[in-house]
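User:
Hi there, any thoughts?
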Amino acid sequence: RASHTAPRPAHANFLAPMRRTMAAAGVALAALLVCSMAPAIAAEEEEASPDDPHAILKEMDANKDGKLTYAEMFDSVMGEDDDDGSEEFKEDFKNRLEKHFKASDENGDGFLEVEEIRKLVAAFSADAESEEEL
């Protein structure tokens, strides 16, 4: 007895290469997605710039309330430094921080939020640039 198999429909031959192409396209799409996400993943892994207001807030916000006080900033920078040689720096930093903190605190609430921290950083950077010119 001869086995009788139904002939393959014409569209089956047409779909086979298309299925292979779609599978390859899926692999290519997945690779493209992974490659497009790589810069974002790398950016998260890199250390933030020391001038980044978000990084400054994260580092200095002692009570984690999402804003900085003058005391949090001063204490974070000065720490437990009792070195006698740093008195000049400490006094200079204190004067600049008082001046720039007040100017950056736009709403006058005594706290700096991210945008206000950005202004404070710009003010300190402008000071540093003007000193370099001297």
